[in-house]
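PROTEIN DESIGN WORKSHEET
SECTION A - STRUCTURE
LENGTH: 70
TOKENS:
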């Protein structure tokens, strides 16, 4: 299982380089305008879903269905 999850973890780490600054931009935008941008919310939601799906696959929590990339 771990060998199949390695590409996912590598891509998740690369995607994290985009998600962290995006969360800061969303925070600043929300402080200034009192609204959180929907596209930033959707991007963060997709990232977290993907992260938790891969983490559950690589541990003993879920079945052996291979997680999708998106």
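SECTION B - SEQUENCE
RESIDUE ASSIGNMENT:
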């Amino acid at each position: 299982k771990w060998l199949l999850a390695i590409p996912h973890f590598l891509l998740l780490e690369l995607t994290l380089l985009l998600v962290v600054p995006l969360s800061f931009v969303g925070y600043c935008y929300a402080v200034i305008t009192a609204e959180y941008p929907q596209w930033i919310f959707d991007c963060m939601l997709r990232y977290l879903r993907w992260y938790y799906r891969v983490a559950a696959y690589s541990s003993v929590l879920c079945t052996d269905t291979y997680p999708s990339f998106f």
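SECTION C - NOTES
The radius of gyration is 15 Å.
The chain has two helices and no strands.
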